[in-house]
Amino acid sequence: MNQKQYQPPRVWTYDTENGGTWAGVNRPTSGAQFERELPVGKHPYQLYSLATPNGQKVTIMFEELLEAGESGAEYDAWLISIGDSEQFSSGFVGANPNSKIPAMIDRSGEKPVRVFESGHILLYLAEKFGRFLPRDHAARTEAMNWLFWLQGSAPYLGGGFGHFYAYAPYPMEYPINRFTMEAKRQMHLLDSTLAERPFIGGDEYSIADIVIWPWYGNLVMGQQYDAGEFLNVSEYTHLRHWADKIAERPAVQRGRIVNRKTGEAWEQLPERHDASDFDKLPPAPAKKG
Fold first, then answer.
1. pLDDT confidence of residue 1
2. Can you tell me the distance from the alpha carbon of 92 to that of 48, in angstroms, rounded to the nearest whole number?
3. In terms of Cα–Cα distance, which of 91, 96, 88 is closest to 121?
4. What are phi and psi for residue 232, nearest 5 degrees?
5. How far is CA 46 from the centre of its chain?
6. How far is the C-alpha of 233 from the C-alpha of 222, rounded, in Å?
7. Which residues are CB-neighbours of 271 under 8 A, at least 6 positions away?
């Protein structure tokens, strides 16, 4: 049907054949669809995830904590294949009733504690270990401003621009234009902010950088939705400089590939149960120049 001729019905009904990349996964009901317990490893923290931008936030945070010497932050990262609907198992729904990755179980205390929503997981870990969140009240507040900005803004990028540009069943001019405008506005905001300071929240690297880099860092480096040229990302010079700088951090290089099952062999670590797992991967190619 021509989109301009679409007339919404009086009552919406679920169409399982609505097309698009995720048509077979999304549905209008919540809850478990089948019985399966989640695996449990040996470490205090059990992460169930996939290396989407939201998943990368948490694995980068874990690797940053370990890089900073927090041995108590050891974790097992289990792959949840959302394309195969594994997020709808009874075990995963028990960890996150919203059936979205990532979900974490903190088993370091007497009773397991579930933590879901990626931004909350980072805040939970930052507060528990006293890392990557400034102690100064004003600086902490500014970092939190950007944490919540990301949680509210990224859906416009992923569910808005990314969906209609890369995953919809066919190109649609209005939503692509609408969300392209918003994606570029967001990048301009970040670029303007980073023209005045080295990190998103101020002078310190913080969870604000960790949550924003997987979305907007990858985007401005042209590694998301194959949309770098379309969005003319080269015009955001301060954002690109920041993204490149974050990408050079060893913990980021490790965290971005955990629970990943696409790309080159050297950047795929579907599960992570020990620091030595990274050593089993083939070496990354040397950078040119």
1. 45
2. 8
3. 96
4. 50, 55
5. 17
6. 7
7. 76, 77, 78, 79, 259, 277
For the cut 60, the answer to whether the pLDDT of residue 224 exceeds it is: yes
- Which residues 6+ apart lie within 8 Å of 78 measured at CB? 38, 39, 41, 46, 47, 48, 49, 259, 271
CB 259 within 8 A of CB 77: yes
State the Cα–Cα distance between residues 137 and 134, nearest whole angstrom: 8
User: What is the reported pTM?
Assistant: 0.95
Judge residue 165's burial from the number of C-beta atoms within 10 Å of its C-beta, 0-12 exposed, 13-18 middle, 19 or more buried.
Answer: buried
Which amino acid, one-letter code, is at 35?
A: E
Q: What are phi and psi of 21, to 5 degrees?
A: -60, -40
Q: CA 236 → CA 180, 190, 239, distances in Å?
A: 15, 9, 5
Q: What angle do helix axes 118-129 and 53-67 make, rounded to 10 degrees?
A: 10
What is the tens place of the pLDDT at every residue in 119-139?
A: 999 999 999 999 999 999 999
Q: Which residue has the higher pLDDT, 18 or 128?
A: 128
Q: Which amino acid is at 102?
A: P
Is the predicted pLDDT of residue 21 greater than 90, yes or no? no
